[in-house]
Amino acid sequence: MNIARSILLYIAWFFVCMIFVVTVLQFLPDWIEALFALIAPFFAVRWHNKRRREKSASNSEISESRYKRVAGQPYNFRPDKPFQAGGRAVERGERTSPLPAPTRTRSLTSNQPNQDNRARIAADRAARADPQSEYPASYAEDDIMPISTNQSAGDHMKISSAIRSKGGWVPSGETVVVAGRHISGMVYVGTPPSVGESYYRQTCRAYIDPALSVASLPADPQSDDLGYWPSYSDISARCRATYLDWLADGATSKNINVGYVFLYFYGLERRLFVDQPEQDEQELIIAEAERLLALYGENYSIRRYLGEFVETASIVFAREGQITPIYESRSWELPLPVRLKIGASVRDGERVSAEWILSWYLCSGYTNLRTPAWRCTKEFRALFLVLHEEKYPGGQKVRKPKGQLQYRYRAASSEFDLDLKPTVDGNPVPDITTLAAPLNRAQLIADEASDRLDKYSRFLGRNSDSGGSIEAHALLPIEIRDQFPCAGMDALENWAKSIIMADGLVAVTELIEKLEGATPDRIGKRQLTDAADALAGLAIGMAPDPRFALRAPKADEVIVLFDLGEPVVMLEDVSTGYQQALLEMALGSFVAHADGEVVEAEHLRLVELAAIAPVANDQERRRLQANRFWFEAVKPDMNMLRKRLKSASAEDSLTLRTAAIAMAHADMAIVPEEVAGIEKIYTALGLDRSLVYADLHARDITDTPVSVRAAIAAVGGESIPEDTPPNAVTLDMSKIAEIRSNTDRVSSVLGEIFGADAEGVSPKDAPIPDSSFKGLDTIHSMFVQELIAEMSWSADKLAGIAAVNKLPLAGMIETVNEWSFETHGEMLIDDYDGYEILPEIAEAIRQTMNGGK
Q1: Which residues lie closer than 8 Å to 230 by C-beta, 6 or more apart?
Q2: CA dist., res. 57 & res. 52, Å (int)
Q3: How far apart are CA 785 and CA 629, in angstroms?
Q4: Engineered SS bond to 361: which of 25, 400, 442, 607, CB 3.0-4.6 Å?
């Protein structure tokens, strides 16, 4: 009979496998398809027969009525136990078949074969007669002995004479001994009952079966042999020993595989929802689950399943005052407390508060949280509540959906489900999970909060240990700054205001030290940007702002602090007019500094540029004035100017030419240094240097070719010269020619141009121009070869190279960058934020070297 059944099953599975091969495995070779069709049915039949044998061997003595609530069946509650949700009674439906009331008397025994127990009976009698005696040695480790918890370990511990072969739940307050381990209740012990329906029945996972072996080997707390759904009956003997040791230790060790935690939790879950104990025991079980959640909550699965258990139990078993907003859920479904509370508010026509909208949004599973929301969790939630209250005072008005709330709790053990239809005040609650509009509105608020926290979040990303620093606090939106107090903020604000009351100038190192609490070894662009953002939150501005400055202040230079008028969140949002005026002032200051000082006429010209610039608002005007002050106080550096000039459009180029020429004429005197400076600006703009002299002579610049001399035929007699405009400047053309002829020499003199050191190289010390790079002398050529060997350099290394050559480092960098810009169209060395070598230029230089040019 068994053979015939197996043959029929094989044929059936063979046809199933052939269909699978034809529809799915067409891409495989024919021999693999044939092998699969022949072998796969064999394993399928073997598996089928194994399952059938297990079913036949299942314990037929277990009452089916006791365990008939299984997965897929609804679970109804006793009507005599209403529960509360947010202060309203929620009635449960009647149970279809009440369970027998659990007994608190526990007497269990191991499932051992028949044997002669006379020796044990005698030992038991002796133990009863002698209160000082200990457990007889004849007891095997597999025995289960209930122990009264109101006796000390040295007291006489009686073995209950009432024995039930099936065992069951050991409540809190009783102790059971399994394999020599004393376990303090809250577990199922005994022969495991069958659970599940139809052919695929299995034994209850949580039951500790005393008939199974327990290894004497050392524990293996991190064993990988537990499987996804561990069952005490299926795990290895060593895993059983580890599990029992963990329980005997109070289930507190964190050095344990979470599979053991789940195995313990399966029993708590089953006891609460399937057995439905009395209220006191319900509270104990929920409290134990909360303890496990707090202890092992770092694990994702623990947070999800135990969290859902506690949430559902709190609703089902009427835990007063437990329904509060939930801001974290690992389940894809909206937690029951959130659905119940918000649904009741919507049903009654009440507004949904910001706290519950945030809870709904964060737990919905469809949120789009950006980095600031999870990196700055507390700050994000606080700002969300503030912004929501601003947009929806008193909460959102949410329309009532048509569907009613239905909830299914799926047991973590997969052994049963619960179908719930909770009510509030005896009335059904609408199902809010079908609504999308409130979540869409919440998403807009969340995006705004993330934008406002972006700078704070980025700062924490770079400085994870600086969350409570002054600089971090200053980056917080002003609306929530009071919720996260910082002791040093008032001191910083008072210090900055005292600087502003003076002249506004302060050493950049002093500012960074105030913000970071230590003197920096190096000041980079990121530090300056963070400083500007932090001060802007206090309505204090800093010039220059490294986002727009043509160069950052060096460590030995000063910056300008000024009053912004109001806190500014996004300093980078400026108008095009502001940026254009800033560049014009930078060019003008470069020309003004060319002769070594800024005279009154040049100063007034810069003030005029700041005053007439087409900026967007008063705040930008304040920032321009502060930058003008810094331009006058600190000499410019042409290296940093080139980056902005190189990308200038034709229209911008004309504007910048006009600004440079106007500044040169501002003091009614043009000196050779100013001409040389303007030539550098024209070169950076990609213009012919000869235009400098035509523009200086014409003064009014147009975007058409400049006529130096009209092309007309000569006539007899003497020509009458044109009238010279009263305000024109007469230039000595021979002097200009001399300046032009000396431009290359002047460019190579260290410190001649602004931003370089004042000390230069005298003509007699100038090296002989014998180099491998056209336009560079030997020393600077060797310097270039050393530079391109690495892509980044520290200041100390470059200073050492300069010291060997007995030349100032700033001058060497200036000369090399001048050469690089004229030869390759870009600087080789970027000292904006450290000394970095531009890879493209370095590669071009290497190709030149390899080509022997």
Answers
A1: 205, 239, 259, 260, 262, 263
A2: 9
A3: 40
A4: 442
Strands 829-830 and 558-563, bridge-based pairing: unpaired
Overall pTM surpassing 0.85 (yes/no): no
Query: Which amino acid is it at 53?
Result: R
Cβ-Cβ contacts under 8 Å for 528 (sequence gap 6 or more)? 508, 542, 546, 552, 553
Token pair of 797, please? 């290394």
pLDDT tens by residue, 132-150: 444 333 333 333 333 333 3
Antiparallel, parallel or unpaired: β 792-793 and 558-563:
unpaired
Sequence-distant (≥ 6) Cβ neighbours of residue 813 within 8 angstroms: 639, 798, 829, 831
Q: SS3 helix, strand, coil % of the chain, rounded to 5? A: 50, 10, 45
Query: Which tens digits make up the pLDDT trace of 65-118?
Result: 333 333 333 333 333 333 333 333 333 333 333 333 333 333 333 333 334 444
What are 193-212's pLDDT values in tens digits? 888 654 456 889 999 999 99
Cα separation, 615 vs 626, in Å, equals 14
Q: Which residue carries 């009071």 as its tokens?
A: 482
CA atoms within 13 A on the CB side of 536: 24
Helices (H) and strands (E) in the chain, counts: 30, 19
3-state secondary structure 574-619: CCHHHHHHHHHHHHHHHHHHHHCCCCHHHHHHHHHHHHHCCCCCHH
Pairing state between β 558-563 and 540-543: antiparallel
Q: How far apart (Å, rounded) are the C-alpha atoms in residues 325 and 322?
A: 10
- Cβ atoms of residues 599 and 671 within 8 Å: no
